[in-house]
Amino acid sequence: MKIRPLQKTDEIPFDLLLLADPSRQLIDEYISRGHCFIAIHDERTVGEFVLLHTHPRTIELVNIAVKEEYHGKGLGRKLVERAVEEARKLKAKSIEIGTGNSSFKQLALYQKCGFRVSGIDIDFFVRNYEEEIYEDGIQCRDMIRLRMDL
Question: What CATH number does the domain containing 55 carry?
Fold first, then answer.
């Protein structure tokens, strides 16, 4: 498994980006300003993450996804760890991430990787997405914000 920056000659992995964020409009906006990395296995893109400068000395992990057949194999953790490493290389003092109130697996992963809950943006997904989002029968309404000091 190799994790590397997305090159200009690479196809943007919209199939993966849309797994983590159903808004193509938002993806188009941040992918052009961010740092996208892809995980390659057997010459296939199987994971990705995007880092974005949001405040002075703060990087946000705005998108992270793994192909379904690679779930449970530790790739998500490797991507989060690499994102933290890249944020340090970019001289960030902290890295942030947001996830839905219904995203239990992701919330657990981020905390296992050292992130701490820093806030809740009430009704974030209701305000910012036209269609309702559901995971495991629960409406995704609020964004749980997490942060790690570097």
Answer: 3.40.630.30
